[in-house]
């Protein structure tokens, strides 16, 4: 296993060192900075009064907007009372006295800083859920669960400090996503599951799946001529920097999206093989593989549903729009917007399915190899003992 993983690990480290962003603003970041007035900040504001008024259009459509007075809670204007306009969408979702809102503060306007509504403040529900998640994971999975949380923090560090900034540079999106994903898997798997042949088996299967996603994804994106410019977000990115490879971003998204599912499948398969081997070490490689695949087929059947429904849920607003359009079903399915999700799902599912037999075969091979090595070590000890007593 070391003959395989050491070169991959070295390549990953070299890739991180070579492609690590230098911290200089990219073209997209420089353009994006011009869209906001310099010095713009986002202080919290507590609503002290709300006055609603009719803001319906001349056609007679009813709408209710509001003017709110808020006390600025932090930043340069802390303690000031400011008035902000709230549109009909905000009023419909509810704004009451005592609510905390996130405001924008532009210090460069004539007559002093100006404030506007930016978003709702969501610190309490997000922090509460995060703490509850950590407690549940720690209580149920104990130290291994806490180790997985540390691994999750590392994964976000790599994504935020390497992958996302790297995708805004001139480097290949595919290489950036592959190197970042491999780095995440090397650390996360061993941190959560410990240094063992079982974990190494899962890592081999995961790296195989990632490589397969990259290869199949490249072919699929090229042959399907996916432009990547199918959403408001990518259109905005194109305005910031039209030189970005948006088809490459599609492929990078496929690679990153496959991380969690591949990790889940491969570690489960590796664990199943080693549990079978511990129960009956006399089983041959073929028997281990056959019984492991019996577990793997069940896992494949359930995980494929997981992938499809996860992408369907993410694309639900898009599917609702297509439901409203009077177009043939096949035209909708093969349209650029939906084709991205379809190809993303199919590529991820194929890599997932093929990673199962590869992980199972590797696990069975390494389990039997461990038996052979253990037997050889035992034989060496016996020979040593015979030699000692024969003196």
Account of the protein in words:
By secondary structure, the chain is of the alpha+beta class. The chain folds into 2 domains: 44-122, no CATH class; 124-383, Multidrug efflux transporter AcrB transmembrane fold. The protein is built from 12 helices and 5 strands. The protein has a 5-stranded antiparallel β-sheet. β2 and β3 (81-86) form a beta hairpin. The radius of gyration is 28 Å and the shape is elongated. The two termini are 40 Å apart. The model has no long low-confidence stretch (mean pLDDT 84).
Question: Layout of SSEs?
Answer:
Layout: H1 2-19, H2 27-33, E1 44-54, E2 64-72, E3 81-86, H3 88-93, E4 100-106, E5 114-120, H4 123-167, H5 173-193, H6 197-224, H7 232-240, H8 246-279, H9 285-314, H10 316-324, H11 329-333, H12 336-389
Antiparallel strand pairs: 1-2, 1-4, 2-3, 4-5
Protein name: Putative membrane protein
Keywords: Membrane, Transmembrane, Transmembrane helix
Transmembrane segments: 124-141, 148-168, 174-192, 204-224, 244-262, 300-322, 342-367
Characteristic key phrases:
10% strand, Multidrug efflux transporter AcrB transmembrane fold, 5-stranded antiparallel beta sheet, 391 residues, 2 domains, alpha+beta, 12 helices, elongated, single chain
